[in-house]
TrEMBL record:
Function in brief: DNA-dependent ATPase involved in processing of recombination intermediates, plays a role in repairing DNA breaks. Stimulates the branch migration of RecA-mediated strand transfer reactions, allowing the 3' invading strand to extend heteroduplex DNA faster. Binds ssDNA in the presence of ADP but not other nucleotides, has ATPase activity that is stimulated by ssDNA and various branched DNA structures, but inhibited by SSB. Does not have RecA's homology-searching function.
Name of the molecule in the record: DNA repair protein RadA
This protein's UniProt keywords: ATP-binding, DNA damage, DNA repair, DNA-binding, Hydrolase, Metal-binding, Nucleotide-binding, Stress response, Zinc, Zinc-finger
SUPFAM superfamilies with a match to the protein in the record: P-loop containing nucleoside triphosphate hydrolases, Ribosomal protein S5 domain 2-like
Limits of the RecA family profile domain: 67-217
GO molecular function ontology, one term from the record: damaged DNA binding
Family, per entry: Belongs to the RecA family. RadA subfamily.
Gene3D superfamilies: 3.30.230.10, P-loop containing nucleotide triphosphate hydrolases
Key word Translocase present: no
Amino acid sequence: MARTRETFVCQACGAVHPRWQGKCDACGEWNSIVEEKAPPPASARPLPRSKGKARMELVDLKGDAPDAPRRKTGIGELDRVLGGGLVPASAILIGGDPGIGKSTLLLQAMAAVANGGGRAVYVSGEEAIGQIKMRARRLGLANANVELAAETNLAAILGTLEAGTPPDVVVIDSVQTLWSDTLDSAPGTVTQVRACAQELVRMAKSRGTAVLIVGHVTKDGQLAGPRVMEHMVDTVLYFEGERGHQFRVLRAVKNRFGPADEIGVFEMTGAGLTEVLNPSALFVGDREARASGAAVFAGIEGTRPVLVEIQALVAASPLGTPRRTVVGWDGGRLAMILAVLDARCGVGLGSHDVYLNVAGGLRIGEPAADLAVAAALLSSATDSPLPLDVVVFGEVSLSGAIRPVAQAEARLKEAAKLGFKSAWTPSGLKLGSTPLPVVEIGDLAQLVARFGDLPRPARAKGT
C-alpha cells in the first residue's frame, strides 16, 4: 500500500504549499495553512487502457428533448431564484452568515415539498433531532412528513440515501461538518470539504435527487472551503441580510437552470421567513417626509425591477483625512463619483465626510446606480431635497457623461406602478412607450445645475 504524504493546505483558498508558513502566497491570508495527509501522486507512466469493458453512451445533440421537469418547493421567492423550482439530479450550494436563516428557509422548503407529495430528507450535522423538531414546532411545521437525521459520517449518509427509493430532495446542513473515513483530515478542512462535496454531487447525478448543500462563509462573506466546490455544483445561492434589519435577500450568483443575479426577498418573523411579494415598496419605504440626501434608484436585480432608496450625508470634516463610509454599495465606485464631480463639475467634497447607505439592507452592484448616488450627494451637499415623485438611474462615465442602461422600460413601469410621476434618465434611451415623463440628463454638469450653491474645491494659492 502506498504511503501517504504530508501536505500543507490553505484553508481559505485551497492552495498547497511544500512546507508550513505563516502567510499564504496565493490569497494573502495569515495563519490559514494546516498540515493534512494526502495520498501520493500518481505515477508518471501512462495509465493502462481497459480492454473494451468500459463504455460511455453517446447521444446525438439533434432532435427534440423535453425540458427538465422541476419540482416546486412551495415557496414562491425560492422557486423564482432557482429559475422555476428544483431540477432533479441538481446540486445547490447555499451560503450565508451565521443566524441569517438558512436552516429555517430550508426546513420550511422541505416541509412544503413533503406536503406536496414528495419525499424530503433533512440531514443535519450541527443540530440534534430534538432541536430540529423544536424549531419545526415554532415554525408550525410539526406535522410535516419530513425525514430527519443527525449524522456527519459521509459513508453512513450515502449508504442510507442510496438504499431503496431515492428521495426527491435532500438537505445537507452543513458540508463543513461532514467527514469521510477514507481521509485523515479533520472535518471542515479543504480536503474533506472537497471530497464530501464531490461525493454528494455524484450521488445527486446518479440517483436523480436534488441536493441542497449548506456552506459556511468566511469573514469576508465568501463561501468557505475550496473554490472548486462552487464549480462542481449547478447553482450557488447567497443568503444576505443585515443584523439590524428583518429583511433577507436570497441571491443567485450561479445557476445552470435559470438566470443568475436573480433575487428573492424574505422577512424574518417569529413564525419563520415570509415572502415579500413587492420588494420595491419595501425598500423605498415611507417617503412622506421631504428630506435632503435621498434619491430613489430604479434598479434591475436578475429579471426583477426593484426600486430602492439611496441615502447620502455630506458633512464638513474636522479630520485631516475625511471619512468615506459605504453600506450596500461599492466604495471604489463612490470614490470615482466624487472624483468626477470634482474634476468635471468643480464640486469639491474632498474636505467633507461622506456617508452612503442603501436603505433596507439591499446590496447594489450595477453601475446604473451612479446617477442616483450623484443626485443624493448633491442633494445633501446643498440641503436641497429631490422631488418625492422622481426616480433616477444612469451610469456615470469618467468624462462626466451619463451613459444609457439596459431595461429602461421595465424600470419606468415599476416606478409608475408605485406612483412615481417622473424620471431622471440618461439621454438617448430608445423607449417604445414611456409610462412616465422623462427628463434626460446628458452629463453631470446638467445634474449639478439643478441644485443650489455647491462646495467648491480648495485651491492652492497662486493657482
